[in-house]
What does this fold into?
Amino acid sequence: MDDTHSTPLNVPGLLDDPSPPAAGVSNIPSGDVKDLWQQESIHLTDLKIAVNFIKGLQNPALDDSALGMSIEAVERLHNPAHEQSCLALNDDTWLAIDLFLGNPSELTYEMNHTCILHYYLDCKLPTYYKIKCLVSKMTGIESLVHNMCINLCIAYTGPFAGLNTCPVCSKAHYDCCHLESSYRKERVPWKEFHTIPIGP
It folds into this structure.
């Protein structure tokens, strides 16, 4: 019978200190916990993105341009109206309101706007901007719009705001045909996400 003993593998660091760590002692290097939030300390891409989103939520402000709320909407939120506005509206304006509320997408509204004016030359249909302002003034509610990936992978907010392609599926942020036909002047997103703030 061979009573020779097998020699353990010599892996650096594996057997340097065979004793288990004392209770309550961690192997995490010493340092300030805040250092964990520094980008150079984070090596996982998904974790870096999550940290950027968390940082963006740490000091929220209604007048932050990234939120997408207009100056007028912020003012209405701070000083809400106590009486219902009485506006005399003509038939063309009511039609525009119906079109806007049916689908608040600017692209859809403009397409319907063009078709209606083509067949009804005497129609005075307001522009998208005017009808959007009117509806906000009448209701006190303003939809916050953020662009989305065509496959609904992400919304282009926070660290994704300036991207031209989706980091998940690599699809283009904007409608390429519309971009080329406008000589790269008009960037129309493939999809939009609308949020109605809870305040109003």
Remarks:
- The chain has a mean pLDDT of 77.
- The chain is about 35% helix and 5% strand.
- The beta strands are 144-148, 191-195.
